[in-house]
Amino acid sequence: MSDVVTGVLALQGDVREHLVALAAAGAVARPVRLPDELDEVDGLVLPGGESTTISKLAVLFGLMEPLRARVRAGMPVYGTCAGMILLADKILDPRSGQETVGGIDMIVRRNAFGRQNESFEAAVDVKGVVGGPVHGVFIRAPWVESVGAGAEVVAEHDGHIVAVRQGNVLATSFHPELTGDHRVHGLFVTMTRECRAADAL
């Protein structure tokens, strides 16, 4: 049922695809560009795109500090590719001026799987997603170098960590929104629904 409002940070990247996937997974999906729009959502997706550009735009639009505050307060957040980088507490090779929202105790390496022309697709087993492997699209994708004690590895590919969860925060280095398979978004919508239900108690 459409009982949770889930936003997609709409500053840059594949926003429309996430909105479609979230709606298919049972959420009311809305773009988020301003702090007052952030206040109206139960959960948020940080899409793929260019992580440095997204972080700079988030600062410019006055969203970075409100985002950090909501994540610290327990708002469910899901980041794909660039969104994974934004959710990392530390980037191994940050660009000048690049900031993160944080939320997952992990160290991420940008563009770890190679350049645009080295993009690939692969089947990925994701813990918490039923029905077999998901189809992962890796485009200039990061991987996770290491995780802290509070973070759970939920998927690996070719010996590298490609999906991590810490509490209400989920991140994948691949793009499930590009495949038509909405099960990872379904997992996130379930996380958001459970979080809102717990807040209502």
Main β-sheet, spatial strand arrangement? 2-1-3-4-12-11-10
Using only C-alpha atoms, the radius of gyration works out to 15 Å
Instruction: Please provide the count of β strands.
Output: 12
Structural class: alpha/beta
Q: Supply the number of helical segments.
A: 6
What is the compact description of this entry?
This protein has 6 helices and 12 strands.
Provide structural commentary.
The chain has six helices and twelve strands. It has 201 residues and is of the alpha/beta class. Strand 10 (152-157) and strand 11 (160-166) form a beta hairpin. The longest helix has 18 residues, at 183-200. The chain starts with a strand and ends with a helix. The mean pLDDT is 93.
Offer a few descriptive terms.
201 residues; alpha/beta; globular; 7-stranded mixed beta sheet
Secondary structure layout plus pairing:
Layout (H helix, E strand, L loop, with lengths): L4 E5 L5 H10 L3 E5 L2 H4 L4 E4 L4 H10 L3 H9 L4 E4 L1 H6 E4 L12 E6 L10 E5 L9 E5 L4 E5 L4 E6 L2 E7 L2 E4 L10 H18 L1
